TrEMBL record:
Transmembrane parts of this sequence: none
GO molecular function: DNA-binding transcription factor activity; transcription cis-regulatory region binding
Keyword field contains DNA-binding: yes
Source organism of this protein record: Herbiconiux flava
InterPro entries: HTH_LacI (IPR000843), LacI/GalR-like_sensor (IPR046335), Lambda_DNA-bd_dom_sf (IPR010982), Peripla_BP_I (IPR028082)
Pfam families for this protein: LacI (PF00356), Peripla_BP_3 (PF13377)
PROSITE patterns for this protein: HTH_LACI_1, HTH_LACI_2
Name of the protein: LacI family transcriptional regulator
Domain HTH lacI-type: 2-58
């Protein structure tokens, strides 16, 4: 394995010059020609940095953790891809950890105590209150919360949840629907509250009443999406359309409607927040509002990098690109 000394010998420079150039040190005052000789030599020798030694020297590991509630969730993949792409550009590796049940008290605190990571991106579980998050995460560790609950003093990067739900609701109103239901997240979820507010605001803008029997707040999982359907169908006048605050719950809604003999979209139209490859493979294919989760991942990783290196506490909302309506076969105009 090539060493710094090998690279220095081939490039005809000092070891310290090689070290400064290859680590991107701000004080690496070398000419462009010398820098090129060093990088060419490192490439030819297939030089790989000794990250263990660098961690000891700089008190950094160049590793961050991405903590999400569920790694099997289809919409998590775009977030992870954005984090990894930005991390690669900034020479950081990304460890994945789940924030579920027993692992919530195991994975992240252990990574922190053992000094394995420089910081963490955390998408907190919806049921976790800000006070619990403060207790579980060492305040000395740079942390950025990703579109989820966070302590009052926590840095965050969020999505335009209200706008996403307004777009979904506006789509149904534009098709002629007036009796629209909302299947929402938990009351403890900040994204759930924002998405419900977006639904209510768009209904108010269209001067349409919100039937409180048509609003549920059970969560984002498939099983609770199924559970939300029963009360909606038991109402005196059924809704003609449903806005679902999360695509995973929407799959539950589709399954339950089908099991009860309700035709989607001819009896009830369904539109969901977030998009994934699974939306094309449901039946019927699901109309969604695609939120910029890839860009969310990149912005969150960039914000964490700035917090690690400069102490900046981010308060960011990703607005570019804007949420995008993707129309598939689960929404049509209501029957006369």
């Amino acid at each position: 394995m090539a060493t710094l000394s090998d690279v220095a010998t081939m490039a005809g420079v000092s070891v310290s010059a090689v070290s400064r150039v290859l680590t991107g040190a701000a004080d690496a005052r070398v000419s462009d020609a010398t820098r090129k000789r060093i990088t060419d030599a490192a490439r030819e020798l297939d030089y790989r940095p000794n990250y263990a030694a660098r961690a000891l020297k700089f008190s950094r590991t160049n590793v961050v953790a991405l903590v999400v509630p569920d790694l099997t969730n289809a919409i998590v993949s775009e977030l992870m891809r954005g984090v990894e792409d930005e991390g690669y550009e900034k020479k950081y590796m990304v460890l994945l950890a789940r924030a579920e049940s027993e692992l919530e008290e195991y994975a992240l605190p252990r990574l922190i105590k053992e000094g394995r990571i420089d910081g963490a991106l955390v998408q907190a579980a919806d049921a976790m209150e800000p006070a619990e998050l403060s207790e579980q995460i060492d305040s000395r560790l740079p942390v950025v919360y990703v579109n989820s609950n966070h302590p009052a003093d926590g840095g965050y990067v969020d999505l335009e949840d209200e706008l996403g739900t307004r777009i979904a609701t506006r789509h149904l109103i534009g098709q002629g629907h007036k009796r629209i239901a909302f299947v929402g997240g938990l009351p403890s979820s900040v994204t759930g509250r924002r998405r419900e507010q977006g639904f209510r605001d768009e209904m108010a803008s269209a001067r349409l009443p919100v039937d409180e029997h048509f609003v549920t707040s059970l969560g984002y999982e498939l099983v609770v999406g199924r559970a939300a359907v029963g009360p909606l169908l038991d109402a005196d006048a059924r809704p003609t359309a449903i806005v679902v605050a999360n695509i995973n719950a929407a799959f539950g809604v589709l399954l339950e409607l089908r099991s009860r003999g309700v035709s989607v979209p001819h009896d009830i139209s369904v539109v969901a927040i977030h998009d994934a490859w699974t939306a094309d493979n449901s039946w019927p294919p699901l109309t969604t509002v695609k939120m910029p989760r890839y860009e969310l991942g990149r912005r969150a990783m960039a914000a964490l990098y700035d917090r690690i290196h400069g102490g900046t506490v981010p308060r960011l909302v990703v607005s570019d690109p804007a949420p995008q309506l993707i129309i598939r076969e689960s929404t049509v105009a209501p029957r006369p």
